[in-house]
Amino acid sequence: MKKLIALIMSITMLFALAGCGGGDDAAAGRTAADITADGVLKVGVKTDVPGFGLLNTADGTYSGVEIDLAYKIADELGVENVEFTPITAATRGQLLDSGDIDMVAGTFTITEERKMSWNFTTPYYTDAVSLLVKNDSGIEQITDLSGKIIGVATGSTSMKALTAAAADAGVELTDANFSELATYPEIKAALDAGRVDAFCVDGSILAGYVDDTNHIVEAIRFSPQEYGIATKKDNTEWAAYLDGLVTGWLEDGTMAQIIADNGVVASFTE
Amino acid sequence: MIQQIMEPWRWQMLFAEWPKFLKAFGITLEISVLALALALVLGVIFGLMSTSHNPLLRIIARVYVEFFQNTPLAIQVFFVFYALPYASIVLSQVTIGILCVGIYTGAYMSEAVRAGIGSIPKGQFEAAASQGFTYIQTMMLIVLPQTIKIILPPMVNQMVNLIKNTSIVTMIAGGDLMYRANAYATNDVMSYGPSYLLCGALYFVLCFPLTTWARRYEARLKNRDVITNTKKDKVEEVAA
Known about the structure:
The complex is a heterodimer.
Chain A: H1 2-19, H2 22-26, H3 32-38, E1 40-45, E2 48-49, E3 53-56, E4 61-63, H4 65-77, E5 81-86, H5 92-98, E6 103-104, H6 112-115, E7 118-120, E8 125-134, E9 150-153, H7 158-168, E10 178-181, H8 184-192, E11 198-202, H9 203-206, E12 214-227, E13 230-232, H10 236-251, H11 254-261
Parallel strand pairs in A: 1-5, 1-6, 9-10, 9-11
Antiparallel strand pairs in A: 2-3, 3-4, 7-13, 8-11, 8-12
Chain B: H1 2-5, H2 8-16, H3 18-50, H4 55-69, H5 73-83, H6 93-118, H7 122-130, H8 135-165, H9 177-186, H10 192-239
Helix pairs in contact in B: 3-4, 3-6, 3-9, 4-6, 5-6, 6-8, 7-8, 8-10, 9-10
């Protein structure tokens, strides 16, 4: 009898847990017209990526390509207020699904798998993955990575991309070769402390962490990363609207201008 | 979240990764068991020290408890992981987990032990002394056995907290259960629903037997007391 009660309680708990996100999932998400009517656009952005989404802690303002992009979209919608929500690789999906934010513009790489869960616009920027290493590390090409520990961000595509690139060069990298850490500053701290031998992420992000003790490995540049604006899967109308805007700005050079204005290197082309 | 949980293909993909979760579960178990052993040892030692008559021992125990109770475990772990390498002390993530979680929980356990010893009537110590028991004998044979049922509930709370607290090593890429669930939840198809649900269920599997055992053991100890008391009553009746 006791066992039965325990079982029933466990199952109830699981459902209660599952129910937490339930109400929000039902909401279909806001269309462009809804946002214009509400007068506020809610955008999930990075806070720690110089050039793309950086939070100035002194005055609480954001700057970067993705911030300018968000303001530009707000202009199109005729919305005065843009509400920025800080996101990490681990939270951005949930925030979209729950309807807390309308879109993510936060170095969110488009992949086939992610397209199963969210809508993405045409890429507004293409980056390539690279490595940041200490000057005395001796890592100058991909074959030097054998037996090394590489720091990557939790939930980033870098790990898979580097594993594939290394496999092409005949080096096998396993889970044991990677340390997944929550934020980029933590990976930088781990690199400084010698906890990881290399810091692997998209080149544009690495550029913000270069100092006297380290450098980006020029010879290792692989796996183009296409950044797109992500929206909730079932809100196709809103996704189509955003895609129209981004496509237009790519064609008329507005996007290239925003990239140049923020001091970011132009999109990677193979 | 609920939408993801309802999609069978996500669960199929998750179970294809089962060996990785099993390995992570093993790491969590390893950290838990060893940290628990460390915490119990420290808890008893410092608990005894804080009830000792020697002021120096009491001060040492106080400093230990106050330091670890009043600083966040996350800071302690970060310090060992990021700062100690500058002093050429490089410990593995699993070792850091065992040491930090063990020492941290040991502080709480020593408080439980101290409270337990404090709740034993003074007469017990005096009786032991009158019979020529040494301090160690008094503690080991008379006092500590009596404290067990008093401190069991708070101790088990700490043990369960310890198991859950081992997830702190996720922050330093410890490879434990939470780390694996996090990695799975944020990579590829990002099935965070199934991943976190499975992770929660596995922690439950680890903690639930412990709390169940403790509840039963406590009931048995209390039961035994009742029997002893009843017997004593009978003896008194006969004597009367």
